[in-house]
Amino acid sequence: MNRMSLKSRPGLTAIVAVLLTFSAGAVEFIALGDLPYNDDQAATFEDKIAPAVRAANVPFVVHYGDFKSGGAACTDDALAAGRDEIHAINDAPVFFTPGDNDWTDCDRATTGAPVSELDRLDYLRRVFFANEQAMPTDWGVRRQPLYPENAIWSVDDVVFVTTHVVGTNNGRDEILEDDIDNALAHVEAREQAARAWLTDAAIATLRAKALVVIGHADVTTPFGAGTCDASNRMRCDAYQDFRALLKRAAEIHRKPMLYLHGDTSPFCVDEGFGDGADNLWRLNGPGDYTVIDAVKVTVTPEAEVPFQFESVVGETAPPSCT
Questions:
Q1: By C-alpha distance, which of 150, 185, 156, 157 is closest to 171?
Q2: Which of 55, 88, 103, 144 would bridge with 150, disulfide CB 3.0–4.6 Å?
Q3: How do residues 143-191 score in pLDDT, each as one tens digit?
Q4: Other Cβ atoms within 10 Å of 293 Cβ, number
């Protein structure tokens, strides 16, 4: 197994320098994604979920992607409307990482107007990140050059990082409107950038007490098999390296670590990432046609149970994934 280097990386000094003087206590936030996929879910979102999120009065919200169904059109107006709806869900900042429905699936005939997925990703970045929301200066929010959806920030003694990993085999499958070699080159560059960003976050966490990683894809459920290389670029396990890096990061800093994602069901929690990584937790968030809700996450790094979860409307804890 390749060992993750802890040597300095470009930009790491700036990331570490913005971390806070940490204090004891809990950090709460709300996460949601994979909705609304139809009119009924849209009504539930507007009438129940959004009011409950605002009433929770958390310092920030994270959206783990898929703000529309995979069959919905990906017009400029639709993507901009999704941005407006996400930003309006909370008076405090909302951090967003894209899902496959939001760009890589926009070339499907089922949308009614298939378009280039690379064009849609470019537009998505412009509408979501061209004008940054106001953020508390002491969070030290930083975004990765060329990949503004990859963010890192810290609140009290917890480091948070968004990483752009999506369903549809991380964008390797169903390339229908773009040149395949060009699209795969973009995938490979984005995967490398996400791994570098996660490595920097893991190093920063050496000075913190916990790390929360937010992505869209369920990296524990491979789409393909084998290593992604020149001989197997589309049907490989696109999450293999990222999954190994998550485990390695947990092994290195030995502090509470959570990977929070959507894209699959059910809404559940996995203490140990399924294979004995005792300080690495996984939360499969609500949405995706099952539990139509958002989830409040409480991070208490020094507690016996460092992560607690409760749906904001149903006020229920997720069951175990196993």
A1: 185
A2: 144
A3: 999 999 999 999 999 999 999 999 999 999 999 999 999 999 999 999 9
A4: 23
Sketch the domain layout of the chain as residue ranges: 12-311
CA distance 39 to 42: 5
Tokens for 83?
């941005």
3-state secondary structure of 148: strand
Where does residue 288 fall: left (phi above 0), alpha (psi -120 to 50 degrees), or beta otherwise? left
* Helix, strand, coil abundance in the chain, percent, nearest 5: 35, 20, 50
Q: Which amino acid is at 246?
A: L
For residues 236 and 227, the answer to whether their CB atoms sit within 8 Å is yes
3-class state of residue 298 by DSSP: strand
CB neighbour burial string for 210-235, b if at least 16 within 10 angstroms, e if fewer: bbbbbbbbbbbeebbeeebeeeebbe
For residue 143, with 0-12 CB atoms within 10 Å meaning exposed, 13-18 middle and 19 or more buried, which class applies?
middle
pLDDT in tens, 266-297: 999 999 887 768 899 999 999 999 999 999 99
C-alpha distances in angstroms, 320 versus 15, 121, 225, 267, 284?
Answer: 34, 34, 26, 9, 10
Closest CA to 269 of 322, 212, 205: 322
Top-level class of domain 12-311: alpha beta
Q: pTM higher than 0.85, yes or no?
A: yes
